[in-house]
Write the structure tokens for this entry.
Amino acid sequence: MSAHLNADAALLDLAVNDYDMILVDLRMPGMDGVALIENVRHRTDFRQRIPILVITAEGDRLAHDRCRSAGADDVLAKPVVMDDLFDKIGAVLARAPEAVTFQNIVGGLPPSPENCC
């Protein structure tokens, strides 16, 4: 797991590391979440299909549609309830093109607030 303050740092990290999922905020300094999603989806390697879940304070349908049109797998509105986050993560990973399990995210433990972050 990695955390980055901006999309440019996340993309540099993604170029050399493998991840099972990307959680991205729609609003970030510099490049926004939609631009990051588009950048990932336009890659020519296997990383272009990494599941992407957007977390945003923008609750309007237009913002959510922009995220999905860019290639996000799902969108979760803030404020985030941990149970909702785990449900969304599970749903997104279940639809992932390759078999991905929570073992890759939380070391084999079932998802819960206690073993999350």
User: Anything to note?
Assistant: The chain has five helices and three strands. Residues 83 and 112 are 8 Å apart (CA to CA). The longest strand covers residues 52-56. The first helix runs from residue 7 to 16.
